[in-house]
Write a structure and sequence with these properties.
- With about 190 residues, the protein is of the alpha+beta class.
- The chain is about 25% helix and about 35% strand.
- An eight-stranded antiparallel beta barrel has the order 1-5-3-10-7-9-8-6.
Length: about 190
């Protein structure tokens, strides 16, 4: 499993209905995208859930690198780059993926939490704890899914979770979910990834 996210920060007075309309227009393209497990079309609105900014920040879980590469080099990403400028694309290796207690329910909110991997820890233990945290989050009432991923260049773990309620039971940056495209959700490997 691989994860990917980019974020486009928008002006404070930006009409976020423009992004809602864009998502409604472009989301059908990925409904059958080979290699894509899940794309969560996420936004943050200034003043909502404590967000200081307006942003469009979709998050992806891929079960095949070829699909991710086709997205980035061969198609839809170019349209976003043409409209908003080319954002930095963050990529992570999967640690764990779990379906939640509310799997199959529509998601209203997403939570994104970063944690540095401290120097001096036993890496195996830290990563096992991160995988266990994904399982714990998935077991919470209202959790649709939870994943843990790692950037081994920066030694940073990210926990990503989707929630059926607007007030999630997880700590971190909260996003509104506009739409989910999940053509290969059933192909994402469950549990710990090593």
């Amino acid at each position: 499993m691989h994860a990917m996210q980019y974020s486009v920060t928008l002006p404070a007075d930006y009409d976020m209905d423009v992004i809602r309309a864009r998502v409604a227009r472009v989301s059908p393209v990925l409904e059958g995208w080979e290699g894509l497990g899940l794309k969560a079309y996420l936004i943050r609105e200034r003043g909502v859930h404590g967000s200081p900014v307006n942003a469009y920040a979709p998050f992806y879980l891929w079960h095949a690198l070829g699909g991710m590469n086709r997205f980035l080099w061969g198609g839809p990403f170019q349209g976003l780059s043409d409209d908003f400028g080319r954002p930095a694309v963050h990529q992570w290796t999967g640690l764990a993926y779990e379906e939640g207690a509310a799997a199959g329910s529509p998601a209203a909110a997403a939570v994104f939490r970063r944690r540095s991997v401290p120097d001096g820890v036993v890496i195996t233990d830290f990563m096992a704890d991160a995988a266990a945290e994904a399982a714990r989050l998935a077991g919470e009432d209202g959790a649709v899914l939870a994943a843990a991923v790692v950037d081994s260049r920066r030694w940073e773990v990210v926990h990503f979770s989707l929630w059926e309620q607007e007030e999630p039971k997880a700590e971190g940056e909260v996003f509104q979910v506009l739409h989910l495209s999940a053509p290969g959700l059933d192909r994402l490997p469950r549990g710990r990834q090593w």
